[in-house]
Amino acid sequence: MIHVSRLSVTPVKGFAVWHPDEVTLGEEGVAEDRRFYLVDEEGLRFGALRHGPLVRFSARYDAATEELVFRLPDGSEVSGIVEVAEPVTTDFYGRDVAGHVVRGPWAEVVSADVGQRVRLVRADRPGDGVDRGKGGGVTLLSDASVEELSRRSGEPVDARRFRMLIAVAGGEPHEEDTWIGGEVELGEARVRVNGHVGRCAITTQSPVTGVRDFDSLRAIKDYRGQNPRTRGIDFGVYGQVTRPGRVRVGDAVRYMVSSEARRRPSYSK
Domain 3-27+133-256 classified CATH 2.40.33.20? Predict the structure, then answer.
């Protein structure tokens, strides 16, 4: 039986993901996933592509109380209640995201670690901080696909480097590709699977240190090739929530046949 094997979220874009036992999927995905992000002094996004070791930080955010906690690389913590200041608009790969700069100690501790001044921003709308591509706010990847990449490359591959919201177990390698154009039911929720996730250089970085340690893009391309339409290096899929609800680790994943569904190639050579 195909089932949910892991859930991965982070309140702050670029920080380490953590693994709750359950999440609630709304129309925007998980509301507080990537709710916060960093920008530099020019207002440009400052994320893991620019500074991989951000992943050494982790965070927790309670939207009900507005408490935000940063855990620093040395194990110490900085916490407080979120208060916002001036509005900002940030470019997310051609998509404008509206937010407000966050007052408080969080930006200062990150600035000291990365060696330049950054500001912390909270997106005004839940879900806006997620890299949506054109496929929606939910990402899925099968454990079997990660295992196949490990087998093909001859390297142990930590699935956390792909930073996907939902991992599933029990299927065939890249079976998630065949869901494109249809819907999957996960616990109480249902997701329409819209397309592939084209990978970027972040996946070459260790999910623990942020240091580049594995040429994941070359390894994927070597056996899957490139998407003939987008020229992307695809690994995993995007989806849009069509029925909100809770998703728990262990929940069954059921593919719902759609008249629009069609098998997509794995681009193998």
Answer: yes
